[in-house]
From TrEMBL:
Domain Bifunctional inhibitor/plant lipid transfer protein/seed storage helical: from-to ranges: 27-110
Protein name in the entry: Non-specific lipid-transfer protein
Family: Belongs to the plant LTP family.
Signal peptide: 1-17
Pfam family of the protein (one): Tryp_alpha_amyl
Originating organism: Abeliophyllum distichum
Source lineage: Eukaryota, Viridiplantae, Streptophyta, Embryophyta, Tracheophyta
Keywords tagged on the record: Lipid-binding, Signal, Transport
InterPro entries attached to this UniProt entry: Bifun_inhib/LTP/seed_sf (IPR036312), Bifunc_inhib/LTP/seed_store (IPR016140), Plant_nsLTP (IPR000528)
A GO molecular-function descriptor: lipid binding
Its job: Plant non-specific lipid-transfer proteins transfer phospholipids as well as galactolipids across membranes. May play a role in wax or cutin deposition in the cell walls of expanding epidermal cells and certain secretory tissues.
Length: 114
């Protein structure tokens, strides 16, 4: 019985000392998640699926590094898709009820995002 208790305590110590590694957010994840928003970003209607995805990206960007990566990815995506309405891009989080600590804009300094 004592050996089982010792094993359990050691297992708990390992789990606490080495928590599961959280993966960093990637541009691929962001681009894929926000694909339903492309119509709105090009001047079309805002669809509910887009807002669901915006909120999921915001929730996934937990760390400063994640938020800076998301900022840079959004800027790169805006440059790669023709016809992006920058006003719609800046308004997207607010229209979806999501709060992000920066403005979606080509002029945003992503290195200052916290």
């Amino acid at each position: 019985m004592f050996a089982k208790v010792v094993c359990l305590v050691l297992l708990c110590m390992v789990v606490v000392a080495f928590p599961p590694h959280a993966e960093a957010i990637t541009c691929g994840q962001i681009s894929g998640s926000l694909a339903p928003c492309l119509g709105f970003l090009q001047g079309g209607a805002l669809v509910p699926r887009c807002c669901y995805r915006v909120k999921s990206v915001v929730a996934a960007a937990r760390t400063t590094n994640d938020r800076q990566t998301a900022c840079r990815c959004l800027q790169a995506a805006a440059k790669s898709f023709p016809g992006i309405n920058l006003g719609n891009a800046a308004a997207l989080p607010g229209r979806c009820g999501a709060n992000i600590p920066y403005k979606i804009s080509p002029t945003t300094d992503c290195s200052k995002v916290r």
